What we know:
Radius of gyration: 23 Å
Low-confidence stretches: 130-137
Oligomer: single chain
Helix content: over 70%
Distance between the termini: 75 Å
Strand content: under 5%
Amino acid sequence: xxxxxxxxxxxxxxxxxxxxxxxxxxxxxxxxxxxxxxxxxxxxxxxxxxxxxxxxxxxxxxxxxxxxxxxxxxxxxxxxxxxxxxxxxxxxxxxxxxxxxxxxxxxxxxxxxxxxxxxxxxxxxxxxxxxxxxxxxxxxxxxxxxxxxxxxxxxxxxxxxxxxxxxxxxxxxxxxxxxxxxxxxxxxxxxxxxxxxxxxxxxx
Length: 204
Protein backbone atom coordinates (compact mmCIF):
# COMPACT_ATOMS: atom_id res chain seq x y z
CA UNK A 1 0.00 0.00 0.00
CA UNK A 2 1.34 3.40 -1.05
CA UNK A 3 2.10 5.70 1.87
CA UNK A 4 0.67 9.20 1.63
CA UNK A 5 3.24 11.99 1.53
CA UNK A 6 1.22 13.90 4.10
CA UNK A 7 1.97 11.15 6.61
CA UNK A 8 5.69 11.22 5.74
CA UNK A 9 5.81 14.99 6.20
CA UNK A 10 3.93 14.83 9.53
CA UNK A 11 6.29 12.15 10.88
CA UNK A 12 9.38 14.01 9.70
CA UNK A 13 8.19 17.25 11.28
CA UNK A 14 7.79 15.36 14.52
CA UNK A 15 11.42 14.25 14.16
CA UNK A 16 10.25 10.66 14.02
CA UNK A 17 12.43 7.82 12.76
CA UNK A 18 9.27 6.41 11.20
CA UNK A 19 9.15 9.41 8.87
CA UNK A 20 12.73 8.84 7.71
CA UNK A 21 12.03 5.15 7.12
CA UNK A 22 8.87 5.88 5.15
CA UNK A 23 10.70 8.51 3.07
CA UNK A 24 13.43 6.05 2.12
CA UNK A 25 11.03 3.19 1.44
CA UNK A 26 8.84 5.29 -0.86
CA UNK A 27 11.43 7.34 -2.72
CA UNK A 28 14.74 5.46 -2.85
CA UNK A 29 13.95 3.14 -5.79
CA UNK A 30 11.87 5.83 -7.47
CA UNK A 31 14.73 8.34 -7.43
CA UNK A 32 17.27 5.73 -8.54
CA UNK A 33 15.25 4.60 -11.58
CA UNK A 34 14.41 8.17 -12.59
CA UNK A 35 18.00 9.35 -12.05
CA UNK A 36 19.38 6.50 -14.15
CA UNK A 37 17.22 7.60 -17.08
CA UNK A 38 17.76 11.35 -16.71
CA UNK A 39 21.48 11.37 -15.83
CA UNK A 40 22.95 8.42 -17.71
CA UNK A 41 26.58 9.45 -17.17
CA UNK A 42 26.29 9.16 -13.38
CA UNK A 43 27.41 5.82 -11.99
CA UNK A 44 25.16 3.67 -9.76
CA UNK A 45 27.40 4.59 -6.81
CA UNK A 46 27.03 8.30 -7.62
CA UNK A 47 23.26 7.97 -7.71
CA UNK A 48 23.12 6.14 -4.39
CA UNK A 49 25.30 8.80 -2.75
CA UNK A 50 23.14 11.57 -4.20
CA UNK A 51 19.96 9.85 -3.01
CA UNK A 52 21.41 9.72 0.52
CA UNK A 53 22.32 13.42 0.27
CA UNK A 54 18.78 14.15 -0.94
CA UNK A 55 17.17 12.43 2.06
CA UNK A 56 19.49 14.26 4.44
CA UNK A 57 18.60 17.60 2.84
CA UNK A 58 14.85 16.82 2.98
CA UNK A 59 15.10 16.00 6.68
CA UNK A 60 17.19 19.12 7.34
CA UNK A 61 14.72 21.41 5.55
CA UNK A 62 11.43 19.72 6.44
CA UNK A 63 10.59 22.27 9.14
CA UNK A 64 10.35 25.03 6.52
CA UNK A 65 8.42 22.91 4.00
CA UNK A 66 4.75 23.88 3.64
CA UNK A 67 2.66 20.87 2.68
CA UNK A 68 -0.13 21.71 0.26
CA UNK A 69 -0.52 18.73 -2.07
CA UNK A 70 0.89 15.22 -2.43
CA UNK A 71 2.38 16.24 -5.76
CA UNK A 72 4.03 19.26 -4.16
CA UNK A 73 6.12 17.16 -1.78
CA UNK A 74 7.15 14.77 -4.55
CA UNK A 75 8.23 17.67 -6.77
CA UNK A 76 10.23 19.14 -3.89
CA UNK A 77 12.09 15.86 -3.30
CA UNK A 78 12.83 15.41 -6.99
CA UNK A 79 14.00 19.02 -7.35
CA UNK A 80 16.52 18.55 -4.53
CA UNK A 81 17.68 15.29 -6.12
CA UNK A 82 18.06 16.90 -9.58
CA UNK A 83 20.11 19.79 -8.20
CA UNK A 84 22.49 17.37 -6.53
CA UNK A 85 22.81 15.37 -9.78
CA UNK A 86 23.56 18.49 -11.84
CA UNK A 87 26.08 19.67 -9.26
CA UNK A 88 27.86 16.28 -9.39
CA UNK A 89 27.99 16.38 -13.20
CA UNK A 90 29.47 19.89 -13.15
CA UNK A 91 32.17 18.78 -10.73
CA UNK A 92 32.99 15.76 -12.89
CA UNK A 93 33.28 18.08 -15.92
CA UNK A 94 35.81 20.18 -13.99
CA UNK A 95 37.80 17.05 -13.14
CA UNK A 96 37.81 16.07 -16.82
CA UNK A 97 38.96 19.56 -17.82
CA UNK A 98 41.82 19.43 -15.33
CA UNK A 99 42.91 15.96 -16.49
CA UNK A 100 42.86 17.19 -20.09
CA UNK A 101 45.22 20.04 -19.20
CA UNK A 102 47.60 17.57 -17.57
CA UNK A 103 47.49 15.25 -20.60
CA UNK A 104 48.29 18.13 -22.97
CA UNK A 105 51.28 19.05 -20.82
CA UNK A 106 52.59 15.49 -20.80
CA UNK A 107 52.36 15.13 -24.61
CA UNK A 108 54.09 18.30 -25.94
CA UNK A 109 53.29 18.07 -29.65
CA UNK A 110 53.08 21.36 -31.55
CA UNK A 111 49.28 21.19 -31.64
CA UNK A 112 49.07 20.32 -27.95
CA UNK A 113 51.43 23.15 -26.98
CA UNK A 114 49.00 25.74 -28.34
CA UNK A 115 46.02 24.07 -26.68
CA UNK A 116 47.94 23.79 -23.43
CA UNK A 117 48.93 27.47 -23.51
CA UNK A 118 45.29 28.51 -23.99
CA UNK A 119 44.03 26.16 -21.27
CA UNK A 120 46.80 27.20 -18.91
CA UNK A 121 46.00 30.89 -19.38
CA UNK A 122 42.37 30.25 -18.49
CA UNK A 123 43.46 28.32 -15.42
CA UNK A 124 45.79 31.17 -14.45
CA UNK A 125 42.82 33.50 -14.56
CA UNK A 126 40.87 31.23 -12.24
CA UNK A 127 43.78 30.89 -9.82
CA UNK A 128 44.23 34.61 -9.31
CA UNK A 129 41.50 36.36 -11.27
CA UNK A 130 41.84 39.68 -9.42
CA UNK A 131 45.14 40.31 -11.22
CA UNK A 132 43.74 39.88 -14.70
CA UNK A 133 41.82 42.33 -16.84
CA UNK A 134 38.90 40.78 -18.76
CA UNK A 135 39.75 43.14 -21.65
CA UNK A 136 43.26 41.83 -22.14
CA UNK A 137 44.17 38.49 -23.66
CA UNK A 138 47.42 38.26 -21.70
CA UNK A 139 48.17 40.24 -18.55
CA UNK A 140 51.86 40.79 -17.70
CA UNK A 141 51.30 39.13 -14.34
CA UNK A 142 50.13 35.92 -16.03
CA UNK A 143 53.73 34.86 -16.58
CA UNK A 144 54.49 35.53 -12.92
CA UNK A 145 51.61 33.28 -11.90
CA UNK A 146 53.07 30.55 -14.08
CA UNK A 147 56.54 31.16 -12.65
CA UNK A 148 55.09 30.73 -9.17
CA UNK A 149 53.38 27.48 -10.19
CA UNK A 150 56.58 26.18 -11.77
CA UNK A 151 58.38 26.78 -8.48
CA UNK A 152 55.96 24.59 -6.54
CA UNK A 153 56.38 20.88 -6.00
CA UNK A 154 53.86 18.62 -7.73
CA UNK A 155 51.62 18.19 -4.67
CA UNK A 156 51.18 21.91 -4.03
CA UNK A 157 50.74 22.69 -7.72
CA UNK A 158 47.97 20.09 -7.97
CA UNK A 159 46.23 21.52 -4.91
CA UNK A 160 46.36 25.12 -6.14
CA UNK A 161 45.25 24.39 -9.69
CA UNK A 162 42.56 21.85 -8.82
CA UNK A 163 41.06 24.00 -6.05
CA UNK A 164 40.94 26.94 -8.45
CA UNK A 165 38.85 24.79 -10.78
CA UNK A 166 36.52 23.90 -7.89
CA UNK A 167 37.28 20.19 -8.16
CA UNK A 168 35.87 18.32 -5.13
CA UNK A 169 38.29 18.20 -2.21
CA UNK A 170 37.82 14.44 -2.01
CA UNK A 171 39.40 14.03 -5.45
CA UNK A 172 42.15 16.56 -4.75
CA UNK A 173 43.05 14.76 -1.53
CA UNK A 174 43.45 11.50 -3.48
CA UNK A 175 45.68 13.10 -6.13
CA UNK A 176 47.82 15.00 -3.63
CA UNK A 177 48.00 12.16 -1.10
CA UNK A 178 46.67 14.21 1.83
CA UNK A 179 43.58 13.91 4.07
CA UNK A 180 40.55 15.60 2.51
CA UNK A 181 40.22 17.85 5.57
CA UNK A 182 43.67 19.33 4.91
CA UNK A 183 42.98 20.44 1.33
CA UNK A 184 41.29 23.72 2.31
CA UNK A 185 44.16 24.60 4.66
CA UNK A 186 46.78 23.94 1.97
CA UNK A 187 44.83 25.98 -0.58
CA UNK A 188 44.45 28.96 1.75
CA UNK A 189 48.18 28.98 2.51
CA UNK A 190 49.09 28.68 -1.17
CA UNK A 191 46.79 31.57 -2.15
CA UNK A 192 48.47 33.77 0.48
CA UNK A 193 51.92 32.76 -0.78
CA UNK A 194 50.88 33.50 -4.35
CA UNK A 195 49.49 36.91 -3.40
CA UNK A 196 52.67 37.76 -1.52
CA UNK A 197 54.82 36.59 -4.47
CA UNK A 198 52.87 38.70 -6.97
CA UNK A 199 53.03 41.80 -4.78
CA UNK A 200 56.78 41.37 -4.26
CA UNK A 201 57.49 40.85 -7.97
CA UNK A 202 54.95 43.33 -9.34
CA UNK A 203 57.58 45.98 -9.87
CA UNK A 204 60.06 43.49 -11.31
